[in-house]
Amino acid sequence: MTIADYLEQFWLQYQSEVPAAKDIYELFLDRGEDITFLSHDHLALRTFNDPRVNIETMMQPFVAMGYTVSNMTYDFPAKKLFARHYEPPQEDMPKIFISELLLEQFSETLQSIIKNTLDQIPQAILNDSKTLAHSKTNWKLNFEDYEILAAESEYASWLYAYGFRANHFAIRVNHLKTFENCKEINDFLRTKNYKINEENGELKGGPEVLLEQSSIMAQYADVEFTDGIHKIPSCYYEFTQRFPDKTGALYPGFVAASADKIFESTNKH
Ligand code: NI
Question: Ligand 1 centre from 259 Cα, in Å?
Fold first, then answer.
């Protein structure tokens, strides 16, 4: 399998299971934008820091296919998250932004729910990180547990309900012909009735930090729990513009203060 084929598995899952992602992608194509899954700025993954599924484990297949870890790291003390990013083997491929929840910083209750959750993943899937990274939920979904997790961490409850998959793809605004910036995209999407993430302002970052981002709020989707269907926030779409640094090169990294608010795109709203 090539790295493009592997990335496409995440993209097809995201496009088929997140109606907003498919619709927005098609709106962009209808305007004449030439974007493919490979021309996105990044693909974002979420996980727990349990060694069975942590960043290093999840990234094994990407690294085997040429991705390299960046030495830039990102800390989110309030959300108790750690993140890193990986650079693609070719420039015209998405970066990977991957975060992990720091389990030991949470209550015993949260830790035991997550341990019990991960214990249910079949060993064959745990042994195969290529499958694991988009294996979704191989566990029973209990709505009471979901709510207990949500009270401590909306990241934990989202990951419990949706499992391992693309949390979002981010369109690279620099490649667009019909939009100059994130603000124009937000205004366009509002006319299509999408709700923009306005936590701390609709634009995260800006030219002064060499990275500007915005995103829609995740739409609610039906998720089947053991006691029936519940409507909860799903995945979202993001937009990323990079600016050149003093050397003229586009800033390659992410900005923790911005990502901190983008995480909240999957919060209840
Ligand atoms: Ni992102």
Answer: 7
188-212, pLDDT tens digit by residue? Answer: 999 999 999 999 999 999 999 999 9
CA–centroid distance, residue 123 to ligand 1 (Å):
30
240, two tokens: 């990323």
Query: How far apart are the CA of 223 and the centre of ligand 1, in A?
Result: 23
Structure tokens at 40: 């996105």
User: How many angstroms separate the CA atoms of 266 and 191, rounded?
Assistant: 21
Phi, psi of 125 (to 5 degrees): -75, -40
211 in Cβ contact with 251 (< 8 Å)? yes
Torsions phi, psi for 146 (to 5 deg): -55, -45
How many A from CA of 215 to the centre of ligand 1? 8
φ, ψ (nearest 5 deg) of residue 78? -70, -40
Which tokens belong to 44?
Answer: 């974002």
| Structural domains of the chain, with CATH | 3-266 (3.10.180.50)
* DSSP 3-state of 254: coil
- Paired with 43 in beta bridges are 96, 169
The single residue listed with the structure tokens 């995201």 is: 14
- pLDDT, tens only, 96-143: 999 999 999 999 999 999 999 999 999 999 999 999 999 999 999 999
Residue 89: HSE in the Cβ half-sphere, 13 Å Cα cutoff: 11
Start-end of H helices in the chain: 3-17, 19-30, 55-64, 108-119, 123-126, 129-132, 143-152, 154-162, 182-191, 256-262
CB 155 within 8 Å of CB 79 = yes
